[in-house]
Fold:
Amino acid sequence: MRRVVVTGLGVISPLGLSVTDTWQKIKLGMSGIEKISRFDASEFPSQIAGEVKNFDPSNYLESKEIKKTDRFIHFAIASATEAWRDSKLNDYEFKPNRAACIFGVGIGGLEMWERYHEILLKEGPRKISPFLIPGMIANLAPGQLAIKFGLKGPNFTTTSACASSAHSIGEGYRLIQSGLADIVVAGGSEAAITPLGVGGFSALRALSTRNDEPQRASRPWDKGRDGFVISEGSATLILEELEHATKRGAKIYAEIIGYYANCDAYHITAPSEEGEGAIECMLGCLEHSKLEPHQVDYINAHGTSTPSGDLIELKAIKTVFKDSLDKICISSTKSMTGHLLGAAGALEAVFCIMAIVDNFIPPTINLEDPEPDCEGCDLVPLKGKERKIDVALSNSFGFGGTNACLLFKRLT
Structure:
């Protein structure tokens, strides 16, 4: 089987508008959560979010194109542009039909949908833009990227709730591994901080209502956690076949060595109570990579800061890594970024890769009063730490019981 490496990274997040900016703040243990500013959220149970700040889409798109497309597409183009430049593929004559794009989007263009629904009610159907549908449907994120970079291989969106972009990376990995592509632009994008987005998750009682302390609201495994914090943004990875990357002298961040996906088949929003799906997914990923549990150095947990989800994931991790818990570090970067929904898996994959590159384990901030179940686990509370990392596991679990795990390794 062909080996797959990562040669480019791009990020738009609540912590910054690049990989460098975002990662520096992650290392410092900073939070990107603030009061919602995109609309008046004063009547909503949850009034906080991880908004992308100071983002100017005109840095990436012509003004007429900005009007035709939703914010999640703007984010996708921005993060992919950074990743593409980082990979130096601008200066390389690749084969277009051997270059694919798979992008994870959990919800799609809610902002455009809401805007034109209001126009429909006030002004009638003749005022609906012909660009509404192509501007908001999920697969126009990879579609726009294919047009921008000339990618003529497979092009589609993975929509699997909070695992969407982890699945996109995994499926891109499989495309290259099986010989169907040499390059895959993979990642995810989401922009659901809208009245309907926040209102819908609030109605589920899924969101934190710690409105007076936004930066302390996302607190995985802490006794005071009361739900996740909704966020927005995008992350992109350039995946490449190892020999293809080596021949053109590409910078290589890490190798992808494992991917596994499955389903709990249990409940529409809750994970199975004993964590069977997560256990099988992590074990499957390890088996696929031919690694033993003790060879994993760091786990970037799904860790959303929900009362039940955090402990079920931790139970699953304890089951899989029972003989090496004293060696492994586990943390949740959602404590700093909030939950980017469909884009979360890609962003956290970037963090796993940067942890390997920098030999630095990100912290779980706000973990001040851990649950008793946390005993025996190094959850890297409050402050990150320097440590050599050769292998990092990224967990992504979503509504509908969908699970995806990715394993990254230092290239040797």
About this structure: The mean pLDDT is 97. The chain has 13 helices and 14 strands. Residues 271 and 401 are 6 Å apart (CA to CA). The two ends are 17 Å apart (CA to CA).
